[in-house]
Write a structure and sequence with these properties.
eight-stranded antiparallel sheet; 359 residues; 2 domains; Rossmann fold; alpha+beta; 23% helix; six-stranded parallel sheet; 7 helices
């Protein structure tokens, strides 16, 4: 299915007359240097702005001028108070409050603070696209989102009914994720139609297509095991106990670098998310935004934006706040060899074999 922004906008938002749409994105400054991909993303935002303006009249919706703001430098840190609109300084809170649809296209993910805004403003829906690229128009963004929503609806009950998830990695390592803590199960299904309940989850990533939850973060959490990962071309292993990363093992310099990172910032040690991506058009490119929609992934760090306990207050400074995803979809150096839901009676349901979703 070829990409059309109009069709994507229609499928995701089903806009009604009078909606107010605003595109926002971050910009490099000072020590936060620009990149080719980031520059191209800002051009992509300008292109989407033009296309939205062209078909807005068909729906009776209003497209506001785009808003830029200084990049935070880290993922899921709170956004700055002010941005720029047509050369003038504007309060971001006011812009967001007076919009019903936000398209966020930043370099550094703002999903956590934007989800907070949806809690404040009940008419707000947000499409969060950190790291989105033009090439995704031909892959994850061109998916059939009605189909994706159906797959998400089939997966979600398994997360809700199981007490844990056991992962076997292609390296032979295993980890058990304890999801018995009754944290919410979210469906990032690409559907953000108007009329959702006040407390509904009104943020989606684009490309969409995943079901996720935050593991039990209590001191008695049964989340434990060994999680391999390739970081900067070095294979390391996270050692996990009671839902915390307690050590990092590996042969080279990256191991020491990661170990110091976790020792210096305890909130990063938290296992924050366990998830299955289910967008059949998503491919592995090295860009987490799309990669995580292609298969199993987990995350460490901040979790309060998805039902967990770890938030900005738990980090040593706002600049250190992070929620970091690591993906094991087919095409990555390490894949999820087997993903089992484990139910309270001890029975299991396999969801992934050799990187392939089989539910």
């Amino acid at each position: 299915m070829a990409f059309e922004l109009k069709r994507l906008f229609e499928d995701v938002f089903n806009p009604r007359k009078g909606e107010i749409v605003t595109i926002i994105y971050d910009v490099p400054h000072n020590h936060i240097n620009d990149t080719k991909e980031w520059s191209e993303r800002r051009k992509m935002a300008e292109e989407w702005q033009r296309q939205l303006e062209e078909f807005a009249g068909q729906y009776g919706i209003f497209i506001k001028p785009p808003i830029s703001y200084k990049a935070t430098g880290t993922h899921n840190m709170d956004m700055p108070e002010y941005g720029i609109c047509q050369g003038e300084s504007v309060c971001l809170d006011n812009i967001i409050k007076n919009s019903t649809i936000i398209l966020s296209m930043p370099e550094f993910s703002a999903s956590a603070p934007l989800l907070g805004f949806t809690g404040k403003y009940e008419n707000l829906r947000v499409a969060s696209m950190p790291g989105v690229t033009k090439s995704m128009e031909a892959t994850g963004l061109s998916a059939d989102y009605k189909k994706i929503a159906e797959v998400c609806s089939r997966l979600a009950p398994f997360f809700e009914k199981s007490r844990g998830v056991e992962i076997m990695f292609s390296t032979g390592h295993k980890c058990y994720f304890d999801i018995s803590g009754n944290n919410p199960v979210y469906q990032d299904n690409g559907i953000l139609h108007p009329g959702a309940e006040k407390d509904a989850f009104r943020l989606r990533n684009l490309p969409s297509g995943e079901v996720f939850t935050c593991p039990d973060e209590s001191e008695d959490s049964q989340t434990a095991g060994e999680i391999p990962a390739v970081i900067e071309d070095e294979t390391i292993v996270f050692i996990v106990k009671n839902n915390m990363i307690i050590d990092v093992k590996g042969p080279g310099a990256i191991t020491g670098k990661m170990r110091k990172k976790f020792n210096d910032e305890r909130a990063l040690c938290n296992i924050a998310e366990v998830a299955i991506g289910c967008n059949d058009k998503a491919i592995v490119t090295g860009n987490v935004l799309e990669d995580e929609k292609a298969g199993f992934h987990w995350a460490y760090g901040r979790s309060d934006h998805i039902g967990g306990k770890i938030g900005v207050k738990d980090f040593s400074s706002p600049g250190n706040v992070a929620h970091i995803d690591i993906v094991y979809a087919k095409g990555n150096p390490i894949i999820c060899q087997k993903f089992d839901f484990v139910f309270p009676d001890g029975t299991r349901k396999t969801a992934i074999i050799d990187g392939n979703l089989i539910i």
